UniProtKB/TrEMBL annotation:
GO terms for cellular component: mitochondrial outer membrane. Residues 35-135 form the Bcl-2 Bcl-2 homology region 1-3 domain. GO terms for biological process: extrinsic apoptotic signaling pathway in absence of ligand; intrinsic apoptotic signaling pathway in response to DNA damage; regulation of apoptotic process; release of cytochrome c from mitochondria. This is Anti-apoptotic protein NR13-like. Keywords: Apoptosis, Membrane, Transmembrane, Transmembrane helix. Pfam families: Bcl-2 (PF00452). The chain crosses the membrane at residues 152-173. SUPFAM superfamilies: Bcl-2 inhibitors of programmed cell death. Belongs to the Bcl-2 family. It comes from Scleropages formosus. One of its GO terms (molecular function) is BH domain binding.
Amino acid sequence: MSSPLERETLLVAKDYVGFCTGIRQDPPSESAKAMRQLAKQTERQHRSTFQTLVQNFLDNSEPDFLTSLKQTMAALAHDGQLNWGRVVALFAFAGMLASELSSRGVDVSNRRLAETIARYLSEEHGEWLLHNGGWVGFLSFFHMVRGADLGLFLRNAFFAVSVASIAGIAALLRPGRLPLGSLLRLFFA
């Protein structure tokens, strides 16, 4: 990671993953602090759905869950419509994943997980991030939604993460595992 955008993306990702796995320290930047607030609020509002997504992800992922996470993240902007709400929902999903892995005693490297998220966002969506003001733009989004009904901003983002998770899980399904139709009914019934 070499550009200021890449460094800040990694900083926000490391802080959030660490925060979700119980590392208690002050946020290293205003964008990290804002991500903690928005992603945790998103998680609280959609806890049961996120728990189901994480459980299905873990049940159907490769032994190296980071490979599976990359595939799931790649489906995030499957429609070419990335936005800050989707980024927040991605962090909420990744935070719950890290927390669940930690609670199961799985040796999860917070740094590797954060690097995977940061690399994906920087390499696959770096132009979008820059075009939308980088993490300063995220802070503008945060201040805009903080005083408004966050649910209005996150509905589409949450739907996109659900679809991305289903698409990622579908790519990972092995013969004899949960059929895709069952997954679709689970999320869209």
